[in-house]
## 1
Amino acid sequence: MTMKIGVVGASGYSGGEILRLLASHSQFKPEYISAGSNAGELITSIHPHLLSYSGKRFSVTEIVDINACDLVFLALPHGESAKLVAGINEKVKVVDLGADFRLHSSAKWSQYYGGEHAGTWTYGLPELKGYREKISTSSRIANPGCYATSIQLGIAPIISEKLIDSSDIVVVAASGTTGAGRSAKINLLGSEVMNSLSSYKFGGVHQHTPEIEENLAFINSDEVRVSFTPILAPMPRGILSTITAKLHTKTSTKQVREIFEKYFENEQFVALLPEGQLPRTSSVVGSNSIHLQVAVDDHTQRIVVSAAIDNLGKGAASQAIQNANIIYGLPEDDGLSAMGVAG
């Protein structure tokens, strides 16, 4: 059952990672590979590591070519997917890596992104309880944001048990520079980033905030408020999130670990590390995994969670492929790995 796959926006970091992963997929073979300003250029001129695509060039993005595909991955900047979707035939399955269809609230879209809200698609985070079933019957998937993935999976087990004050979740998370996309920016130059950490979108204005709050509220129906501070880290890829929340009642680390173990039972891409071992971004690069560690700060009675993912993997490309695998009833690990490539 080989299908014709399209990757739109394939010259970006996430698009390139989709191409790399699809090269080893048993069923998904990318035949339509398009880019915007890079149309006509050799794929290997932008992604020199993708030697299996040698001699192939990026195509122009055209609706007629998208509609000739069975499945399309949209790896476009926020706001661009919505411009294309109206012309895409209903028979074409779509996984959108952008934010255009993640939010339910049009008011929140306007507040955090600006412009008109395009609508809401099935949210593609399979490890959240109940979401896998929705993905399996959908043909339009909104792939989660990278920060949002690490934060939601890091707190979902404990929020589902209503053991925390969900109106007081505090997150500080650091991301590699690929999370900002491929376009040239002075603050992302190597000489600017190296040997430096800096916060950005400071003061609770990061666009993943409403996405996190909406989906966590669906889990336990309580109000969810997240104070989120992102940090730019001097590395290409990876996210490390530290999440804390006030516990309602005295709870031990052992009890919290048991809750996490039960919630993520049989989830092949979620690893609760042994006690004493902390997540490292280098351990998840190239994988579809999230590594977690949990503890209770007895002094403040707050739960503390550390979560590491690859922002281009579980935070983008590999999660998109996992969602597509679910849509087609394929093994979720087809083309994917739970192991990182750290040397």
## 2
Amino acid sequence: MQKLKELVNLWDVGELLSFKKVKKGVVNTNWIIKTSSGKYILRKLGSNKKPSELSFEFKYLDYLNNKKFPYRVPLPIKNKKGKLVVNKGGSYFWIYEFIDGRDIIRFNYPELKECAKMMASYHKLIEKSGLNNNVSCSDFAKEEILEEIKSFRKDIGGSPKDKKEKIFLEESEKLIKLFEGLDVKGYSKLKKYPLHRDINPENTLWVKKKLVGLIDFENVGEIKDALIKDIAGMLQYSCRDRKNKYKLDLKLVKFFLKEYKKYHPLSKNEISFIPSLIIAGAIEDFSYSYWMLLNDPERAKLYRLKLYSKVAQWHNEHKAEMLEKIVC
């Protein structure tokens, strides 16, 4: 409590009264803090993130705010020295005002309708922004993800020491072959932007079934991607089948795409990349889940390794069926 009190005192946000560590999220460490002036979120930059990415994230959020994005975003508050970030003990901290609202665990048609409108509005602003994080990545981040998975396999060697290593070796062998055979031809022609890439039920905030806020923009500084990647990621986490989490409810997917097209154009060519993007995204999540098991075991979940592997494999087997049902 005393260390947090000293940290919070670096901002002009009142006296710390109470705090609670947020259990959700797998990148940054967050605390909900109550002070004599109100309610805030204190964040600590994750060990796999760079300060330069954080600086770009703040610039990005400031742009959305200045352009009157009609949803609240986590705007950092300047401290007593006029800085947005504090370096304390080698870690970076910042504070933003708590955004009232709750997440909705599962989206249905009303939530997808709201989310489609929000994403279309967001994409329009980013297309016009000229924001550039000056980073690049291979199509579908294929080269980078494969390199990371192969590096993990090399570290494990031929004799896994525990269950997580055994599962990783077994599942990654299947996923490497799948990913290497994934056709990325044509995706490189799509224009790339710094994007959220993680719009899902946990990162949206709702008041009385109305979407009011979007949080967790930590991806915007580290990669550029096509708008359809943002959409594919949202579908992967927001349109899951009720019985089988590794599958998509294709009726919900088609509904979302129709709603999005009311506010922003979306070509059949862009839609055709959705199955491959979900496969690539699931393999990326698989690799990141293993990284979490190594670096943040308290919040990591072993079951995610097999889940993400199954997501990738199912979508690979059903690509043609998906496209037949969702192209509108």
## 3
Amino acid sequence: MNLLSKFLSAALALCMVAGCLASCNPESTDTTADTNTAPETSGELGEIVDYVSQLKLDMTSSSLKIENVKVKQYIDGDTTHFYVPESVIDKGILKARYIAINTPESTGQIEEWGKKASNFTKTKLQAATSIILESDTDALNVDSTGDRHLIWVWYKTADSAEYRNLNLEILQEGLAIASSSSQNRYGSICMNAIDQAKSHKLFVYSDENDPDFYYGSAIELTLKELRANPALYTGKTVAFEGIVSKNSGQSIYVEAFDDETNMYHGITVYYGFTLTGAGLNVIKPGNKVRIVGSMQFYEAGGTYQVSDLKYDMMDTKNPNNIQKLGDGFEASYVETSPETFATSKVAVTVIGDDGEETLKEVDYAELALSSTLSMKNLEVKDIYVTNNDGDSDGAMTLTCQAGGQTISVRTTVLLDEAGNLITRDYFEGKTIDVKGIVDYFNGKYQIKVFSVKDVTVH
């Protein structure tokens, strides 16, 4: 949406001017920034001020500035990871938390306008020909997590263009609420942008519904959030999006990629016998879906799953329905090293019983549970064959070695192209490559394989 052409209303503009004048409260930490924080107010009734064009990047000020940066990962509206010179920060990756703004969530629990804010930031930076990062002081400052740095993001889209302050632009668009917005070097102009967005009721300040948000009874979240905090949502109705990778035994496996952790997260979804043919077509492997169901702890497997799916053919857009969002997708089968699978940790935000958020190191395999992966050059050292007069007779657990790690591969009952049972002789003493699902059994993480076609024997 083009802010400069929105709501040219004389009555609202009068409110805007009054709000802007009342909120001017410069709190700059650098006297050189004062020329940037004294915006012109509207010179004509009904005109909306483009505060971003008034704020100028002063390369001579005392604040720390980082040039020649590139985007590594887009996270959400107020967080981006950048490649920076290693002389600035170890390993050359800076996780930037934008100063003065707080956009709605789109990586944990999904909030109204969260996706729009995230897409706005991504679109602006994708068009950038140059990006400069600026700290509010002469040094880098971390946020409350201790893992991200508080940053002003400046960008331009042509060599001849002036740099624009993305933090301020997000505020001006009405895609963020204030976050210590007056307490920084650009405090006054930030507050004016916020007051203007409020006056014109833009996005987060509007009474409009977000077209990208589902207004049902379910908690909207990402698969990463569900995997990082499963106990928090137990017994609650949750909704998330992902790709169906596998259908097996009245259950499907759904996975989705997360930019911040740079990995796939998954969940098992039990549909049982409640879905009709039309409902089953929604959850076919290769479909992108929106799953709505109840988060439950599955005692027999010792893992969490989602169940109690509903599909109403007469009301397919009902926000409490499962929905097909697209098709033609494939399972990721990310090639994963044995060391990563067995020993790596990933930092995620975990919510405690008191509601406090903390950054915690969690096992890679735990966060990857129910997602797909591939692994190569596993040496089969031992084989256990199930034989208990049940449906799983003939299924095998292969204990493998690779890269100094022990990896368990669990198969279903495997048949060759002629329909004959694959026995232990097929794998004994061999080296194999596998494609499967991250599974959990008897206190250990393993790789579950569903077809002989998903195993390559060397």
